[in-house]
Amino acid sequence: MAAGTSRKISAASARSHTRKPKPKTSSKFPGMFKSVLLVGLMGFLAWAYQATKPPPPKICGSTDGPPVTASRIQLKDGRYLAYQEYGVPKDIAKHKIVFVHGFDSCRHDVSAITSYLSPDIVESKGIYIVSFDRPGYGESDPHPTRTLKSLAFDIEELADQLGLGSKFYVIGFSMGGQIGWTCLKYIPHRLAGAALIAPVANYWWPGIPSNMSQKAFDQQLAQDQWALRVAHYVPWLNYWWNAQKLFPCLSLIAHSPRVLSNHDKELMPRVVSIRKEYQALVRQQGEFESLHRDIMIGFGKWEFDPTDLKNAFSGSEVSVHLWQGDEDMLVPVALQRYIANQLPWIKYHEVSGVGHMFPFADGMADSIIQALVA
């Protein structure tokens, strides 16, 4: 019998060698979780896209849009521009003026000038004023690709189609005053004069010192600071920001009285009584192509810097006027003073003790018109 070496194996070890391995089972839950997560993400993205996408405008004269009641011209690109005329007939007028309305306004807001303008001045000076609805407001067609330059050329084409001659005046109030800068930039050869009344300043104009811009910006309501940041940095989010209910939108869109000075509050009964007749017309085509696009253009990246504008009227009788209230809570007076100091060829008028709505005050319209056409 052959001899051999024997090895002792423990019972536990023997059982481990004889035990059948358990079959591996794969859980379905991780795969299901990934699918649910993916579907949820897709749903969120679809919701986010719809939330940031503005509804189409209700164009005047279209099947579902408001009716056309105003006089209108058709521009070269096919859009319609609604307008309203005031003063003496233009064929006998000595001074022909194009009025540019402000934010959340329309052609009828020329009332800031005409409501308390002396009839004697209108007749003796031969004043004719035409006011128009800027694109998307009132009864003027929206202009989805509008720019600072296109707004100036809209004004020039309106003047040409109405036969205002080679030269005409421009008066712009608030956001319309801001557009006055574009007229000085792009169509100065057509201007007989200009009056910029409390023109809105863009806090991102590079010509204004950053510390001054920041200080003025910090004086605005917190909700307005956020709304303007969105309009400047992420304009594609502008509609959602001003339409959602989680955070307060721009105070002017919400008609908040918190942006009114004491003088503005005194004037508001007068302003409201005038505007109540046409207030509903302003936003009737939708808020995006009127209000929201206004914010994006006004506070976006500009094609030029107004503080760098050169005097295109040297040696001529053309005068440019900048009017500002020293208690304006919407347009900081410090920025206006700086701009006026940078452009000494502009005649700066600072009105003491008044806010943004000072053109409605007694005597102001007379002063603005007389200075412009002197």
UniProtKB/TrEMBL annotation:
Domain AB hydrolase-1 residues, every copy: 97-359
Q: Which Gene3D superfamilies match?
A: alpha/beta hydrolase (3.40.50.1820)
Where along the chain is composition biased (Basic residues)? 16-25
SUPFAM superfamilies registered for this protein in UniProt: alpha/beta-Hydrolases
Alphabetical list of Pfam families matching this protein: Abhydrolase_1 (PF00561)
Annotated spans, Disordered: 1-28
GO MF annotation list: hydrolase activity
Name of the molecule in the record:
AB hydrolase-1 domain-containing protein
Q: Which organism is it from?
A: Buddleja alternifolia
